[in-house]
Predict the 3D structure of the following.
Amino acid sequence: MDDLLIKNGRLIDPANSMDAKMDILVSKDKIVTIAPKISAKAKTTIDANKLWVTPGLIDIHVHFREPGYEYKETIESGSKSAAAGGFTSVVAMANTNPVNDCAQVTEFILEKANNTAVINVHTVGAVTKGIKGEALAEIGEMAKAGVVALSDDGKCLMNPGLLRDAMEYASMFDLVILEHAEDQSLCGKWSINEGRTSNRLGLVGAPAAGEDSIIARDITLSKYLNIPIHFCHVSTAGSVDLIRQAKKQGVLVTAEATPHHFTLTEDAVGSYDTNCKMAPPLRSKSDVTAIIGGLMDGTIDCIATDHAPHNVVEKEVEFDCAAFGIVGLETAVPLAMSLVNDGHMKPSDLIGSLSSKPAKTLNLSGGSLDIGSQADITIIDPELEWIVEPSKFATKGRNTPFGGKRMRGRAVVTIVKGRVVYKFNGKDIDSDE
Amino acid sequence: MEDLTPEDISQILNTSKLMKGISERDVKKAPTLRGKTIINMFAEPSTRTRTSFEIAGKRLSADVINISTSGSSMSKGESLKDMVANLEAMRPDLIVVRHKSDGAPAMISRWTNCTVVNAGDGRHEHPTQSLLDMMTILESKRKLEGLNVVIFGDIKNSRVARSNMIGMKKMGMNITVCGPKTMLPLYVEEMADNVTTSLADAVVGADVIMALRIQTERLEKAKFPNAREYSRLFGLTLSHLKKAKHNAIVLHPGPINQGIEISPEVVEGQWSVVLDQVTNGVAVRMATLYLLLGAGLQKTE
Ligand SMILES: [Zn+2]
């Protein structure tokens, strides 16, 4: 008898151009059959009637804080948060303590992931030693240890000469650099976007031009060297335009956007809500519209959360002292689905930006429901309405601007290697036989 | 000033006038706030505003306690939130907050049940300064509506400018802001009626001219080449006053950098109401404390 049968679901698998009612049969950790009607018996059967059955979702931008900041998050708690949000694979950033800039740290993280994570946890390595932007990290050694990309995320690679070296060097190992685009000298010590809200609150604002100018610089380098580069959390209309033009010219650029940057504007900061402080900042309405446009036409390849858990004591302080970032894994699916509900994207395109496209961007396995592939599957209830309760999050972080908000849609079952690792409370869809 | 309605502002200004009467008596004391405790929490040095609040509280018979933290609480490992919790445990009725971080008073008011008054936060607001400015203008001009006011200097980084732009707009004044382009925020044209980088143009027909204190350390941050060039282009002189209305008045929130944003002859001339501003500062703060504590108006400014 096979292990798992998912029946009656709407199977959305963009990599195979599939969007139809299909059953899916899993044996051990592999997908073995996909067909309109499977009559085989399985140990576990899930009735996915009215639900979407999609490739396990992939988030290529999370901060899991281990080693060094386990009070904010661990690989274990982060992985449970990912599972609760419907993600079966994530890519963790390197700004831990110590920074993941050498093979020993990479090995520690991957071993921790292997022993404690309930999903697939990949990691990037730092581009520069200590994320200081001064000297190259041990890129070759980290490549051997298994990093899937390189990034100094949190900081921008401000020295273009060093960036060129890093791109050329990393290309030997087929590792792409993920750029956090923020011109530090143009932006200064900012707290929110520069605009009407910063005028109202007196807070120092980061100009959108501080992101655009780095993206323009990096596109120029990528085109010149013919080496790919990826842009993290694109937040401005200017960036979207630049990336769109670059792609038209065949420059090897890819980009991601976060759910908060396509659902919230700077207005959300309200009266100094530090849960709306993140890097890049929430921007203006026209930027949000441009990000949505970028997702619609494929200029922006992926949706990534930039999941950035912090302890409450790092947020309940003066706004200019508060830590940057919000948690995102457990609210990403409904926020992304608002793009479908608002008529901007087809379900298959949206699922592509959360599965096949992130896999392609970083050359990861997964992101599709191929026969014979590892059974990483997410089941989504597109109509389920629920209210965000940060106290019930699986992540250790409570730093979200969406607390108390009503959401529509969420992952209800998350399956990794054929095993159910998450099931939404009170959702009785699982019948053991 | 963002939270106040024009009616609120009028009420405070009317009350301030009554309060000024108390300060002009032989016995400068009223029993109105007897038994009330006010904490002046100043996390940024400011003798002038702190003293003004202290005198205001004492003239109304409140117990006033000054706490100067000048940023040291964080270095001792105590967060602002902890500090506020500790202060609240002493059961004050009102906390006056001066802080270098924008929004600190708004946050503190979320963390405490007692009334919080903003005595200046970062680059955000300085509402009692704006109120005392308007009181001073009102005394001289008998009205606010329709007056031409020029605010000049570092508009971008000044909480005095921000509060006055908001408050004076609410009172129907015609606001011109002027400063070097590096010190004008984006979208400034939405915050004032006229924007110019020429002080000579700005002052034409002005009823009220308000100089802002220029932070000399900001000048060093390449917002301007040096103090001398700044004073040549943006220092208020007698020649500017000739272009203003003949009975124009000049305000400055103090302390004044004489010879930089304003020339000594202007400060000492009959148009200068700088000392009236200081006197009215006490009256406005008395009115604020009275309305919040004595008259049961529960609101954070
Ligand atoms: Zn980043």
Summary: The radius of gyration of chain A is 21 Å. The domain at 56-361 of chain A is CATH 3.20.20.140 (TIM Barrel). The interface with chain B takes residues 191, 194-196, 198-205, 271-272, 313, 316-321 of chain A (CB under 8 Å).
